[in-house]
Amino acid sequence: MITKYLKFFFSFIIFLLIYSNSFAFENKLKIVSIINGIPITTFDLNERLNIFLTESNLDKNSNNKIKYKDTIINTLIEEELKFQEAQRINPSLISRAKEKAENLLQLSLGPEKEKIEKNLNTFGASYQHFLRLFTADIIWSSIIKSKYEKQFIKIEDEVKSRLKEQELNVLKTHFKYSEII
User: Fold this and answer.
1) Which 3 state secondary structure label does DSSP give 176?
2) 10-residue mean pLDDT series, the chain (181 residues)
3) C-alpha span between 131 and 58 (Å, rounded)
4) Which has the least CB within 10 A, 76, 85, 131, 164?
5) SS3 state of residue 111
6) How far, in Å, CA of 45 to CA of 42, rounded?
7) In angstroms, rounded to a whole number, what is the distance separating the alpha carbons of residues 59 and 62?
8) Which residues sit opposite 39 in a β-bridge?
9) Are 32 and 40 in contact (CB under 8 A)?
């Protein structure tokens, strides 16, 4: 009889633990926004907040997280739109940008993934999140570069010509009005 009650008691405890953990997980992971069918979750938001607060030398407290939450959500939305635009323009752009981002992370933080992850722990964000952040930046710079390449070349040529003019002006003799009077 006692074993029957003990079994029931332990079953009830296990049920409560599983039931409470399912609610606890539900509270941790919620969808913050959906961009063309792709969700941005609280996990993404918290990781990006951790990166932002660490980089800004701000405390990772609830006041700062609330204060910068909307700005970070907008940043995550823009990032997702960059990925979607890259997918629309040229799907291989994402894989090439991801490869470049991995190389940048290795150059910045070390050649081994374990060492990189150890260095990223101070930010409170995962390797995958940093990889996505770097990839989005590379995608966007590639899109801008390809769209405005002619203008960039024109500007670069103009800068070179102005620098050349400045070099020639430096070689000329210059007078100050105070020296003449």
Assistant:
1) coil
2) 61 61 57 92 92 90 93 95 92 93 86 78 85 93 86 85 75 64 59
3) 23
4) 164
5) coil
6) 5
7) 9
8) 34
9) yes
**Which amino acid is residue 17, in one-letter code?**
L
**Per-position DSSP letters for 40-102, written without gaps between them:** EEHHHHHHHHHHHHHHTT---SHHHHHHHHHHHHHHHHHHHHHHHHHHHH-THHHHHHHHHHH
Report the distance separating Cα 55 and Cα 123, nearest Å. Answer: 8
Query: Which residue type occupies 38?
Result: I
Q: What gap in Å lies between CA 33 and CA 138, rounded to an integer?
A: 23
Residue 42 contacts residue 48 (beta carbons within 8 Å):
no
User: What residues contact 126, with CB distance under 8 A and at least 6 apart?
Assistant: 47, 117, 120
Q: Using the 8-state DSSP alphabet, how is residue 148 labeled?
A: S
Token pair, residue 54, equals 């660490």
| Angle between helix 149-171 and 127-147 (nearest 10) | 80
The structure's pTM equals 0.67
Q: Token pair for residue 17?
A: 């633990």
